[in-house]
Write a structure and sequence with these properties.
With about 500 residues, the protein is an alpha+beta fold. Helix content is about 35%, strand content about 25%.
């Protein structure tokens, strides 16, 4: 047979078994991310007026004279964050105090200094409410020239900050110290994975630790303080949850892998210091009889279902919400079955209900944060990334300067409702984009069989997480009789990055 459209006499012989496979067009994850942001009510691009306003900021204003601003540039400040983070919100310093105390200073970027209330930049940040981290790209709360520039506590740059002091007592309890404005200078930008591996004896000392005098001693003191703080909270019922959130590893538009953020002592240092600093901030605002925004997690609405989950695993929880009892149960399950513990954690997180922002009037009764086992808690340590932290920063700065409160209780209540909604929406965007990226990673592996854990059995379907790569999807066939925590084998049958779908069929089951 002569090939159509070919030169006369030219023939092509095709094997009988050849199947034509159309080439799939590339997936534009950036476009999907933009569309998802807009679908959930975010503005993925900054208005031109905001960019002009930020471009007009004079960086020299940082050093503008102010007798209320202390000069703490000589202290050995350091930060620990992700390797690619540039929007640094906080840096830390600590020293040994009397009677076994460890005195901690946490410096928070003074974002309010550059973003006056009511400015175009402020209105833009108030609308989006939070930075959104999709893995594919980051949508910052503030333009990069600001949040990753003149308001970021990057090494080698003098920056304005609000410093929160507290002392960690030998038993892990804390005593609040001063809060004040200061000039600071970060001496070392450290990375979670490197510092964690070194402190845990699993890796070498990073270059800054080896070359900056006194840094090793300071970090080991921070570790001791964090261990004290964590042990104190855990003894009072803080929940040690460990959910898996895979982050897409993207290079030049291609999804190369899904990476899991591992917990380590370096992350624990920052988490514990931020909990203590936020508690100190909430306590000070309460003392000053000023309204504030608190971050709360109410007692679990579905406690009876949490009791049922525990009962299925042979554990008895009391009929009324009890953080300490739940904490003990989770600790035992983590020891007994570490592989499925992240999925149990996710189930508990869903049944507990989400965190929310609540405006608290002067002399009001705080509702507390059930998961952290703390009563007074707020968000004030990440003003480059969360708008509520800018609000709380304005509240404390008004207290420090003796100025009237910049917000009425009614305005704070309105902000809380909107920012709680933005927080939930950001989580939905990030969750969808994790699914979209995973669908791209797996789109050429249709028909392959994977080991997986069952992560959810709901009226909407049965869901699993692959062991490797840690992608999540829905079981479309063979889902009957499955329960959370079971390990099964599934075959990949379909992916759709644009809908965030990954579909499987069950092909077998291994031991639980």
């Amino acid at each position: 047979m002569q090939g159509a459209g070919l030169l006369p006499g030219l023939f092509i012989l095709l094997p009988v078994s050849t199947t034509y496979m159309p080439r799939r067009p590339p997936v534009d994850l950036d476009a999907i991310a933009d569309e998802t942001m807009e679908r959930y009510g975010f503005e993925p691009r900054f208005p031109e007026g905001v960019l002009r306003e930020v471009a007009a900021i004079d960086e020299g204003e940082v050093l503008r004279g102010d007798e209320q601003v202390r000069d703490l540039r000589d202290l050995l400040w350091s930060s620990i964050d992700n390797v690619d983070s540039q929007d640094l919100d906080q840096i830390e310093y600590c020293e040994q105090g009397p009677d076994g105390e460890i005195q901690v200073k946490v410096a928070i970027a003074d974002v309010d200094f550059f973003v006056p209330k009511g400015s175009r930049t402020d209105r833009s940040a108030a609308h989006n409410g939070t930075s959104v981290y999709t893995g594919v790209r980051t949508y910052p709360l503030l333009p990069d020239d600001l949040s990753a520039g003149i308001s970021s506590l990057l090494p080698g740059h003098v920056r304005r900050a609000v410093v929160i002091e507290f002392s960690v007592l030998p038993d892990g309890d804390t005593r609040s110290g001063e809060i004040y404005r200061a000039l600071v200078l970060n001496k070392a930008k450290l990375v979670y994975e490197e510092i964690g591996a070194w402190l845990e004896g699993a890796g070498p000392a990073p270059d800054p630790v080896r070359t900056i005098p006194g840094l090793e001693e300071l970090l080991r003191l921070q570790e001791e303080a964090a261990v004290r703080l964590r042990d104190f909270r855990m003894a009072r019922g803080a929940l040690d949850l460990e959910t898996i959130e895979a982050r897409a590893v993207v290079q030049e538009g291609l999804v190369l892998d899904l990476a899991i953020q591992e917990k380590n002592i370096a992350r624990s240092i920052i988490e514990e210091f931020m909990v203590a600093a936020n508690g100190t901030m909430a306590g000070r605002l309460e003392q000053e009889d000023t309204p504030m925004i608190q971050r709360i997690v109410r007692e679990p609405k579905y406690w009876d279902r949490i009791v049922d989950v525990a009962a299925e695993l042979g554990w008895t929880l009391p009929p009324e919400p009890d953080a300490k009892a739940l904490s003990d149960f989770l600790h035992r399950r983590q020891e007994a079955d570490p592989d499925s513990f992240p999925d149990l954690s996710l189930t508990i997180v869903k049944l507990m209900g989400p965190g929310e922002y609540l405006a608290l009037a002067p002399h009001g009764t705080p509702l507390g944060h059930f998961a952290l086992a703390v009563t007074d808690y707020t968000h004030s340590t990440a003003p480059n990334r969360r708008y509520v932290d800018i609000i709380n920063q304005r509240l404390i700065k008004a207290v420090l300067s003796g100025n009237p409160c910049p917000y009425s209780l009614e305005e704070l209540s309105h902000r809380c409702s909107w920012l709680t909604d933005r927080d939930k929406a950001a989580q939905k965007v990030e969750r969808f984009m994790r699914k979209a990226a995973a669908a791209v990673l797996l789109r050429n592996r249709i028909g392959e069989i994977f080991d997986a854990f069952v992560t959810g059995v709901t009226p909407h379907g049965t869901f699993v997480r692959l062991i490797s790569p840690p992608a999540e999807g829905k079981v479309m066939q063979g889902e009957h009789g499955l329960a959370v925590g079971q390990k099964i084998r599934v075959r990949l049958v379909k992916t759709d990055p644009y809908k965030g779908f990954i579909d499987f069929e069950r092909v077998g089951r291994t031991r639980r």
